Amino acid sequence: MTKCGGCKKYIARADIAKCAKCTKCGTVYHPFCLKGDEEGTPNWVCPGCVSGNPPPAPIVDAPVAEGMDSLELPEPVVSDGRHNSTANDTTEEFKVELGLEIRLFREELSAVREEIRLFRAEVKDLKSSFAATDERISTLDSRVDVLEKRVMEGSGSRLEAVIAELRLELNEKDQELLGNDVEVSNLPEENGENATHMIMAVATKLGVTLRESDIVSAERVGARRRAPGEGGDAGAGAAGRPRPLVVRFTRRAVKDELTAAARVRRGATSADLSQSSAPRPFYVNERLTKYNRQLYYQTRDVGRRLSWRFLWTKKGRIYARQGQDTPRHWIRSADDISRVFGVAS
């Protein structure tokens, strides 16, 4: 490599073009090693040649090996506050920034490690939960298997019997709530009628003294029926089937008295009730729940086909008797119809 004739430092091959070269002795100088009046020109002569004391011949690169580039030795770094202060400042800033980056990297690495630790803990908890869930599912499977075996062995029929008995008990509770109610059916319905006055007129016709204070409520129930081809409200219900009149009394004794009188005067009609429609027979019965009403209809249908003489209700219960001297039977369900009458309902 070539040395500078002033500072004796090695000059990199790439920097030789920037240096001044003596045209007489060939010595190369750094630009900053020359004084202000010694700047290089195309025919420049170094100070040594000018003073008659030329420097030794410059050192040129020696070949290292055939086919290989010459080895460039690094230029020794000499502290020079004039030329290297900026580089030193840049190096210090780089070191500070590098230290900060390393610190941030360590902090982020610590945070990642903590997240991994938490993730492992959560995975462990999930595994425990899955294990507990699998155990519970296995227990439920075992219980289901036991229940299926019980059903196959006849336990299901016992459960169905219990459910049917509970339904009957609920129906009886509902029937008790209707203990003070009567239902007057087939009584002609007219527009603007007063249901309270109607039931009082019916009671008078049956020979029962009824006061308005004995009545809690009186109203027609169900959807209003119209005769075929009937339009508007005029005469509505006159030719169609009238809705039943439901009455609730304050005392059960009043209800029992009215139903007993209706049995005695069976066949009473709506004549003399101040109605414009044609007279028709009406019927006063205890009000039944929907289940009991359907069951009573089935009982009457089967009993009439088999010529049973007595089919009636009392206190919300359905009874049947074949003859005068035969025992009575309490009908609670369709199974009782099959058992009492010996046929399917």
UniProtKB/TrEMBL annotation:
The entry's keywords: Coiled coil, Metal-binding, Zinc, Zinc-finger
Pfam families: Baculo_FP_2nd (PF25298)
Source superkingdom: Eukaryota
Stretch list, region Disordered: 221-240
Coiled coil start-end: 102-129
Domain Zinc finger PHD-type: 3-50
InterPro entries associated with the record: FP_C, Znf_FYVE_PHD, Znf_PHD
SUPFAM superfamilies: FYVE/PHD zinc finger
Entries under SMART domains matching the protein: PHD
Keyword Coiled coil: yes
Secretion signal, residue range per the UniProt entry: none
Comp. bias regions, Gly residues: 229-238
Name by which UniProt lists this protein: Zinc finger PHD-type domain-containing protein
